[in-house]
Amino acid sequence: MAELAHPAAARSSRNWRPGAPGATATITVLCIALLLSAVASATVGAAGIPLERLMAAAFGTGADTPLLARDQLVLWSVRLPRILLAAIVGALLGAAGTLMQGLFRNPLADPGLVGVSAGGALAAAAAIVFGDRLLHATGWRPPFELLPVAAFVGSLIATVILYRIATREGRTSVATFLLAGLALGALAMAGVGLLVFMADDRQLRDITFWTLGSLTGATWPKVASLAPIVLALVVAMPFMARSLDLLVLGEAEAFHMGIAVERLKRYAIVAVAAATGAAVSISGVIGFVGIIVPHLLRLVIGPGHRLLLPSSMLFGAILLMIADTFARTVAAPAELPIGILTALIGAPFFLSLLLRQRGVFGL
Amino acid sequence: MSAVLEAVRVSVQAGRKTILDGASVGVSHGETLALVGPNGAGKSTLLKVLSGELRPATGHVALHGKPVASYAPQALAQRRAVLSQSVTVAFPFTVGEIVAMGAGDRGGRTRDAMVETALADVDLADCGGRIITTLSGGEQQRAHFARVLVQLSCGEDLHGPGVLLLDEPTSNLDLRHQLALIAAAQRRAARGTAVIAVLHDLNLAVLLGKRIVVLEQGHIVGDGTPREIVTDDMLAKVFKVPGAVGRVPADVPFVLPHGIATAAP
């Protein structure tokens, strides 16, 4: 990593963006908002826990009353893992969107939209169907969680293919990128369809869950399985931030200014695939979070990746937590698939963005 | 004086077409060199080879006597700065943020002072907070020149005089800013920087360069002082423009084209 800029790089006494909030203020505000939405989200649901009982349920020790016991059970084994999972998946999707947009120098990039999530879903579905058969046929059980690894590999392959197609001589064509992504997504989903055709009933249920995108069935082990990836991203991001800023000027310029461009691209592709694959393996395909989050943030804090990357994780967490709260309360006791909800908000947003950027990209 | 940056018999192919064919050129500290030639002569390619961006098929490029390919990108960036022909910025960075990118790992007050000086150098002193894409083409070009100047200064602080490579730096600039850019490059050269600029305007080339190198179809066909190079003969042979060189009193050649030749001589 020596040739990627050191995180201390961006320390400066002057902000070249008049009126923009500083880094500390931005992160503080987002953290507070995250905490508030978590508390709000904890209180509502099929079994509501009003604010005045929340503290007792969270920190009370013994179950003094049946009501408190119920509150504690709901909070600790249902509500909290769900909230945390929504936050983590949102953070991963926000990070994946921002990284991808930086890598492709394109504000319209989103792993859900251009087939990277679909690639992960295809690999996950394949793991469900063939994993069982492999186990039956050979008795060999892989020494790791097959699903997340498969989703990561699927996302990685999709990202690499997309990069190869859309980028020529260091230039990425926006139109080629979007169209190739569309085709890749369609191809991957056709693959998923094929697997559905081959699947038995239980496998079918599992696969359907991926294609729709949902956070139901959140458990502590799921939360724990995602934590290392979030941690790795948080550690890696500062090293990539300045390099991604320079990449905005183009690959040649980034090289002229001292960036090992090929290495940066490799890291960024792996990071996008890891974040997307991890999110997909837990929650299925949830689109548009990766587009909305960095775009809104750029309007306020600017496009510098040093602040944009961590902010995207926080804002993505907030957004998905709120969306998931809606998803599980709006039609209670039934649940809306969250992927449908984010698409309802995100697709019009994407269209308006496309209309405004049309001139810029000559689309 | 020995060359700080030198290309020796470099050739570059693109498909079947030969873009550079055994071209050799070197530049020394404090020297200003203008690279001229008709469209498609290989000027930009030669600059890319010199910058380390493009590896030549044959021949080699040496920076401070060591192969340019042996430098890590960051080490290279500290010893030479490059202004490309056109740079598009995909996200709404401000001018100040773009120029500050030139400072690399540096932060704090020294960087801010450098950015402010560079912005003043390119006549954009009050534009640091503007989104770069809202600027005119010429202003954007000046902003990127300021970024390159900051990069050069940072590198020179560490390793002494560096190399400045400019690819058609005046293509979008008005007359005053063309002259100002040439003057800025000369000020750098006066402090030891080696400057190579691809220029289309021969008068600017004469103004900038103690030396002018002429490229034609991948070959170097002229290398000398402006007086030696900018002649009726060269104009007719290389640029296919008939007799147009005049002399101002100090015997500085200038070009006043009289239309173009209808048939190549």
Protein described:
- The complex is a heterodimer of chains A (363) and B (265).
- Chain A has 363 residues and is mainly alpha-helical.
- Chain A is built from 13 helices and 2 strands.
- Chain A has a two-stranded antiparallel ribbon with strand order 1-2.
- In chain A, a hairpin with a 2-residue loop joins strand 1 and strand 2.
- The longest helix of chain A is centred in the N-terminal third of the chain and has 39 residues.
- The two termini of chain A are 37 Å apart.
- The N terminus of chain A is likely disordered.
- Chain B has 265 residues and is of the alpha/beta class.
- Chain B contains 9 helices and 12 strands.
- In chain B, strand 11 and strand 12 form a beta hairpin.
- The longest helix of chain B has 23 residues.
- The mean pLDDT of chain B is 90.
- Classes of the chains: A mainly alpha (363), B alpha/beta (265).
- At the A-B interface, helix 8 and helix 9 of A face helix 2, helix 3 and helix 4 of B.
Describe the structure concisely for a colleague.
The complex is a heterodimer of chains A (363) and B (265). Chain A is an all-alpha fold and 363 residues long. Chain A has helices spanning 23-43, 51-59, 66-104, 116-138, 146-166, 174-198, 201-212, 220-247, 251-256, 261-283, 289-301, 305-329, 338-361, and strands spanning 167-168, 171-172.
What strand order characterises the main sheet of chain B?
6-7-8-3-9-10
Q: What's the pLDDT, averaged over the residues of chain B?
A: 90
Care to count the β-strands of chain B?
Answer: 12
Radius of gyration of chain A: 21 Å
Strand order of the largest sheet of chain A: 1-2
SSE class of chain B = alpha/beta
**Which radius of gyration of chain B do the C-alpha atoms yield?**
19 Å
What share of residues are in beta strands of chain B? 15-25%
Strand content bin of chain A: under 5%
Number of E-state strands of chain A: 2
The biggest beta sheet of chain B reads: 6 strands, mixed
Structural class of chain A: mainly alpha
Give the CA-CA distance, first to last residue of chain B.
38 Å
Helical percentage of chain A: over 70%
User: What's the tally of helices of chain A?
Assistant: 13
| Shape verdict of chain B | globular
- Which pair has the most extensive contact? A-B, 36 and 42 residues
Question: What is the helix/strand order of chain B?
Answer: EEEHEEHEHHHEHEHEEHHEE
Sketch the topology of chain A as an H/E string, one letter per element.
HHHHHEEHHHHHHHH
